[in-house]
Each structure stands twice: as structure tokens, then as C-alpha cells.
Amino acid sequence: MRRTGKDWLADIGMFLFAALFFLVTADSVVAGSDISGTAVLAEQAAGGVACAALFVRRRWPVALAVLLLVSGKFSHFMTGPCLVALFTVAATRPPRVTGWVAALGLAPLPFYLASGPPADDPRTGSALTFFALVACALGWGSFVRSRRQLIASLEERAEHAATDARREAREDVAREMHDVLAHRLSLLSVHAGALEFNPGGNPEQVSRAAGVIRESAHEALQDLREIIGVLRAPEAHERPQPVLADLEQLVEESRGAGARVTLVREVPGEGEAGEREEVQQGGAQQGGVPAVTGRTAYRIVQEGLTNARKHGPGPEVPVSVSVRGGPGQGLTVEVRNPGKEPQHHEGAHPAVPGSGQGLVGLTERAHLAGGHLEHGWDDGDFRLRAWLPWPG
């Protein structure tokens, strides 16, 4: 790998450490020995070469450490470079490799102690100091390697968490897009189908249907624009979320499409102003429907009305919507409409297509809100029923 500027600084620092160790200890070694000046110069030259060899420690750390360990048995001037090489092995190689190199470096210690060296001999202190420095170099390198692994693990976890967060955000946007656009486009499809089968009808009815189509298409484009805007500008403020008080407007839209919707609400302390204030504050007011519960209930009713238009017996399908509950007992939402399981006949007008993910998404929404949802056929009616928590 190409060496970075940080790597070059680290290598130069290690070279300077080895050279400084070389210079600081040179006088004491020479003063206490009886070797000739030529031999001392030769050992110092070898020590200088060993210091320069540290610039290749990244490529061949084990080979360099073994070579310097063996050479250090014959020359004190190899000690500084040897310590740097041992540190490099411990910091960059697996523990098993480090263990073998450590065994090679510390193997003479038991034999040296067993020989009973005199305590007052200066060479005894030098030898013990050397083994202590070897152990410190290996320990420091192992600590650095463990710290690097910990940081890498934390970075990997953070990356996985960010990936999961992005995936959850995409799923939330997809769920929101399905909930909003399916409702708008189903209204548009119902009125377009009425115009197709009755092109010569009452001009007032045709004009009203065309107006609903235009308004639904405009609102669908507006909703889509807002959702895409959130994707393009993630730091922008979130679009206003629906609350339980918006059910009346949602029901009126379906009634405008011809559906006969009956809405029953038995919720204490429920009001539009209070819920709007609750959402702005980001929490549940005392006696008010929690924001998450109200929003989830709205989406459940929205999907139920959309399915009734898609799969019901006709545009004027009767739909019963009930919302009941209170603090401490939860909120129960139920949507019922007559119909039959979809069947396709040759020559029949195709029904409004569906992705099949609406009920799956609602089930996930209910679970995320801490509740549950069930759906199915009951005496010829399709029933969508959910329970959502409402703390007391």
C-alpha cells in the first residue's frame, strides 16, 4: 500500500526514537567495555543501518524483528531498532505471530536467571532492563492493535446503523407514498370510470366528476412533490402529518366520490385544535390522543376507504367506520364494507389495481405504534380492525 503522510511521520518518529536511544546509551556501553575502537565503530555503523532499516518495517515486520533480535544478542546498538520492530509486529500482526516473536525475544530470560547472575554486576541490570523493554514494546503494540480493532468495530457498527437508518427512512417514505397516493388515485379512478360508462350523463354530474378528477390529480401531484422534496432535502422540516381530527375531511372526500360512509367517533377529549397543538409540541397532551396513535388510526381508515373503492361492489359502496376508545383502554379502529373477493371475468372492466402491500404496511404501522391489526371477511363484509395503545 502507498504510504500516506501520516505513515511517513510515524516512520520518521520511530527512526528518531531508535536513533535517540542509540545516542543516549552509547557512552555508558562504550565506557564499560574493553572492546577496541574499531569494533565499537563497526557496531555503531551496524546500529545506524538497523535504524535506517526501520523504514521497511511495514513491509517485512516479522523478518526485520527476528533479524534485529538475533543481532541484538551481539550488539547493544541494535536495542532501539529492535524495540521498534517488536512494537510493529505486535501492532500489525495477529496474536499468534506476535506470540512466536515474543517467545523468541524472551526465551533467553529463564536460562539467564537460572545461571544465577551476580546482582552487583552492571551487566545483570542491563540484561534485565533489555527484557523489560522487550516486554513493554510487545505490550504497547498489542494495546495499539486492540484499540485499532475497537475503533474499526465501532466504525463498522456506526456504518451499519446508518445503513439501517437509511433503509428505514426509505421504507417510511415508500409507506407514506403508498398511503397518500393510493387514496388520491383511487378517487380519480372511480370518477374516471363513472365518466367512461356514462359519457352522456347530466352535465352537472359530469362537471362535478371532472372537477373531482382535476382536484384529486392536483392533490396527488402536490403530495408527491412534497414527499420527493423530503427525499431531496433531508434537513427540511417534515410535512404536516394527519391526526385523528382529520378523519372528517377524509370521509368527506370519499363521500364526494359517491361512497356512503358512516363515521362513528367515541373518543373523549378529541378535538382538532387540541390535536394540532399536540402534534406541534411533539407529545401527547393530558386527555388527548397521542400523536402516533392518531396518525396511525388515520392511515388505517384511509387504507380501508381506498380498499372499499378498489374492491367494493360499486362506487356507492356503503362503508362503516368506527373509532372508539379512551386513555388507559386504547383506541379501536374498525372499517367494514360489503364486497366479495376479487374475480376477473373476460370482457369485464378491470378493477383498480393494487400493489398488495397496503395491508402489510398497515400491519407494520400498527406494530410500530405498539398495537395490532387484523383483517378478513366476516358475513360478506370485509373487516379491517386495529387496536392502538393510549396510555392513561
UniProtKB/TrEMBL annotation:
Low complexity composition bias: residue spans: 280-290
TM region positions: 62-90, 97-114, 126-144
Catalytic activity annotation: ATP + protein L-histidine = ADP + protein N-phospho-L-histidine
MF terms (GO), sorted A to Z: kinase activity
Gene3D superfamilies: 1.20.5.1930, Histidine kinase-like ATPase, C-terminal domain
The keyword ATP-binding appears for this protein: yes
Pfam families from the UniProt entry: HisKA_3
Enzyme superclass (EC): transferase
Cross-referenced PANTHER family: NITRATE/NITRITE SENSOR PROTEIN NARX-RELATED, NITRATE_NITRITE SENSOR PROTEIN NARQ
Protein's recorded name: histidine kinase
Organism phylogeny: Bacteria, Bacillati, Actinomycetota, Actinomycetes, Kitasatosporales
